[in-house]
Automatic annotation (TrEMBL):
Domain called Hemerythrin-like: residue spans: 5-124
Name of this chain's protein: Hemerythrin HHE cation binding domain-containing protein
Any Pfam family: Hemerythrin
Superkingdom in the source lineage: Bacteria
Amino acid sequence: MSTDAIVLLKEDHKEMRRLFKAFQDAEEGPANQRQKLVNQILEALTVHTYLENEVMYPEVRRLLPDLEDDILESYEEHHVADVLCAELASMDASDERFNAKTTVLIENVTHHVEEEEEEWFPKVRDALGRKQLQEIGEKMIALRADAPRTPTEPKAIKKAMDAMTA
């Protein structure tokens, strides 16, 4: 298994895309199936954004100050996702806005992922050596076990509040 931070984040992105497609395929299906998929999406996003906000973004910001604008934009995109995740966590799949809110979350996250993979990751990979990306990845792996799993956990709420006050 690779410890390269970008490889790890791309693996998370791949899993999110799989969950997004599964939700879209089940959009007209039973509420309990949609609820289960959204719960999986919320967990994947909560862990992923936590690792990026706690490790990847601060490290890249420190090592590559020229990318500060990209990182600030990413923090804001995470904040939008955090708000949507928190709202979805308190909703039931039978709510008339559940599918619409999930679709907006998917669209926002998909945009963010595409920007990272097409624009931001190549800049980071070009500027940082393999060793630095592996060190960042190792920090992310170490933190993953303690990352919040739901948007309502205290660590996740703190992350969202930090984004509002930054």
